[in-house]
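2024-03-11 09:14:02 INFO queue: dequeued item Lysine exporter LysO family protein, len=302
2024-03-11 09:14:02 INFO validating residues
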Amino acid sequence: MLASALLILVPLFVGFAIHLQNRRMLTWINHGVEGMVYLILGLLGISLGQLDGLAEQLSRMTGQVLLLVGALLVANLFGLWLWHRWQPMRLDADDQPEGSLGYRRLFLGAVRPLGAVIAGTLLGYALLPELIWIEDLASAALMLLLFLIGLQLRNAGLSLRRLLMNRQGLGIALTLAGTSLLAGLVIAPFYDLPLMDVLALASGFGWYSLSGIVVGDALGPAWGGVAFLNDVLREIIALVIIPLVIGQRPAVAIGYGGATAMDFTLPIIRRSGGLACVPVAIASGFVLSFISPVLMGLFLAG
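2024-03-11 09:14:37 INFO prediction written
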């Protein structure tokens, strides 16, 4: 089981150790990550579509996803509210938000990966014969994806030391991670899984393109679908929460977006909360992006 964790962690750390200066190569890496994500999500969908008793599996997944999303929502918001009470984050009154943002574009960006999984599911269910090599292909693609993600994190132009010295960002990230694991402990008895596997489900922190793939590779496509849907819904809920609460509770708004605070939800954080929120969001999102695969790997190896 320990070997499974190493397979997840080694490519990530190898990629993180490589410093690149060729901007064109970094651009290709970014495109490669996006392409690999959609490929693996499509393979996850094909595996789902070829499950025996697909309708029953999907019905069961609905309840599992709703329980996980609800527990994480309550635990995360309460924990982040307590963090804000203890270490309040003040916004500069002169740093005004930039105004409205195109929610349609953001929403489409959030649901596009879901479309890849649905397309794969339909393809696997209706058209393709049972493909025994799908899991091997998905595992190999996952290793390559993690290596590319390590390269991205290492060459994002961010100083790890400065990110870890951002007290608000680090505190928000650790609060979200801690409350997510606490929620996993509470709901574990309701899942037909070992405790460590439930904690892995709770450790995606909004990074749907990784959590669904890693969990699916270890526990099968049904549980990979649960992890994926949980983190996609976190991203969609964050789009609603951020503009509503960032003015009074910026830590809550930034934190609930999880790992997406450094990329997908960053524009709405900037426009709704102002420039002061950007370094905090980047620090929080980066820390969560780094520890998410580590925690999932360790929990799935337990």
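2024-03-11 09:14:37 INFO annotate: DSSP finds 13 helices and no strands in the chain.
2024-03-11 09:14:38 INFO item closed
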